[in-house]
TrEMBL record:
The keyword Phosphoprotein does not apply. Belongs to the D-isomer specific 2-hydroxyacid dehydrogenase family. It comes from Jeotgalibacillus proteolyticus. Keywords: NAD, Oxidoreductase. Pathway: Amino-acid biosynthesis; L-serine biosynthesis; L-serine from 3-phospho-D-glycerate: step 1/3. One of its GO terms (molecular function) is NAD binding. This is D-3-phosphoglycerate dehydrogenase.
Length: 394
């Protein structure tokens, strides 16, 4: 079996090199899978041949998830693979903004070509007196892979840490220090904190999450750090909060036209995950997940389907993505039994409105049988994608 992968953005070689000879990269018009980072697929037709999309990174807002799901495309991301890179940059921005480093460096650079630089520096450095973060209160919104380690490490820097995440996962909750004060009401955090860092995914529900009401609840002069997504913040409200001094500094990884020239905005060119280590982690994890899915049908770290894992030991496997409605598995097994296929193993899992079934069969399928069985399964109402994976070593 050969597979074709289409990539977008710069994907680290450490990941690409995992695709052996049975894979071709960027040379086919009918790719089996897409591997990408921030490239947006929203305004682009996705070929019917695509069975999976892997986002080498965390945010999947660049992928039309609902569309993909209804076409039977499994979408993956790489949870946690770039979290450390983002955390380190958040903490450095926290300190840099507390110490006025951005403005101070900008001013120092402006002295080029003027007389007595050393004298000017000593005379004017008082304009950049900063604060220490030790003893100040940091509010972390979103306690996932990034927020949780930002919170823990800010404690290690002697900050008081408050956090808000009504949906925190049990796995992550186990890793969070009990000294992180969890609040159930966002306003409580906004009201109390000197610094805020936001780490929630962008979705329809979180667009404009930090709005005028949220800014009104904040302490005067707060430093607000956004390494999550620009659209989480209502830009009009932000501009007003910067103008009236509610926000003392807005540090964002997501510059746009409107933010140019706005005082007290520090714009970073989306560098949160841009370290060699993080790019490799993400590419390796995404490539592995794609390979496992294409070669066995097993699913790890999908954002639209459940995790499934079943060792592939029989001659062939049928994978079926379908609506999560009654009697689907019954119809599949009846159809197979009618054609005298014996089921060796089977697994069915659902996630919300969708489900995924893997059926291992004892029979090796001829091309003719394969086409027939796939067509018949595909015709069952509620089925969106069917594949047959023949077991290479059987
Ligand atoms: N700047 C960068 O380069 C960069 C890198 C990685 C991730 N990101 C962004 O950061 C986001 C978070 O990344 P992550 O790896 O921590 O993701 P994650 O999925 O591990 O964590 C997200 C957390 O947000 C929480 N959450 C969701 N809705 C919320 C709400 N309304 N209020 C409070 N909490 C809420 C979830 O419960 C979860 O714990 C990503 O979705 C992505 O947009 C940016
Ligand atoms: O969501 C993410 O993982 C980040 O925004 C990183 O995006 P990038 O891979 O394009 O740097």
């Amino acid at each position: 079996m050969t597979y074709q992968i289409q990539t977008y953005n710069q994907i680290a070689e450490a990941g690409l090199s995992l695709f052996e000879d049975s894979y071709t990269i960027n040379s086919a018009e009918s790719p089996d899978a897409i591997l990408l980072r921030s490239h947006s697929l929203h305004d682009q037709a996705i070929n019917d041949s695509v069975k999976a999309i892997a986002r080498a990174g965390a945010g999947t807002n660049n992928i039309p998830l609902e569309d993909c799901t209804s076409k039977g495309i499994v979408v993956f991301n790489t949870p946690g693979a770039n979290a450390n890179a983002v955390k380190e940059l958040v903490l450095s921005c926290l300190i840099a903004s507390a110490r006025n480093l951005f403005d101070a460096i900008h001013w120092t650079n402006s002295l080029e070509g003027t007389a007595n630089v050393a004298g000017q520096v000593e005379a004017n450095k008082k304009a950049f007196i900063g604060h220490e973060i030790s003893g100040k209160k940091l509010g972390v919104i979103g306690l996932g892979n990034i927020g949780s380690i930002v919170a823990n490490d800010a404690l290690a820097l002697d900050m008081d840490v408050m956090a808000y995440d009504p949906f925190v996962s049990v796995d992550v909750a186990w890793t969070i220090s009990r000294n992180v004060q969890r609040v159930h009401n966002l306003e409580e955090l906004l009201f109390a904190c000197d610094y805020i860092s936001i780490h929630v995914p962008l979705s329809e529900k979180t667009t404009g999450f930090i709005d005028a009401k949220a800014f009104r609840a904040m302490k005067k002069g707060i430093h607000f750090i956004n390494f999550a997504r620009g659209e989480l913040v209502d830009e009009q409200a932000l501009t007003e909060a910067l103008a009236d001094g509610t926000v003392g500094k807005y540090i964002t990884d997501f510059p746009n036209d409107h933010l140019f020239g706005v005082e007290n905005v520090v714009a970073i060119p989306h560098l949160g995950a841009s370290t060699t280590e993080s790019e490799e982690n993400c590419a390796v994890m995404a490539a592995r997940q794609l390979k496992v899915f294409l070669e066995t049908g097993n699913i790890r770290n999908s954002v639209n389907l459940p995790n499934v894992s079943l060792p592939l030991t029989s001659p062939g496997r049928l994978t079926i993505m379908h609506k999560n409605i009654p009697n689907m598995v019954g119809q599949f097994s009846t159809l197979l039994a009618e054609r005298e296929f014996n089921i060796a193993d089977m697994l069915n899992r659902s996630r919300g409105e969708w489900a995924y079934t893997m059926i291992d069969i004892d029979n090796k399928l001829s091309e003719e049988h394969e086409t027939d069985i796939l067509n018949r399964l595909q015709k069952i109402e509620g089925v969106v994608k069917v594949r047959h994976i023949s077991n290479g070593w059987q």
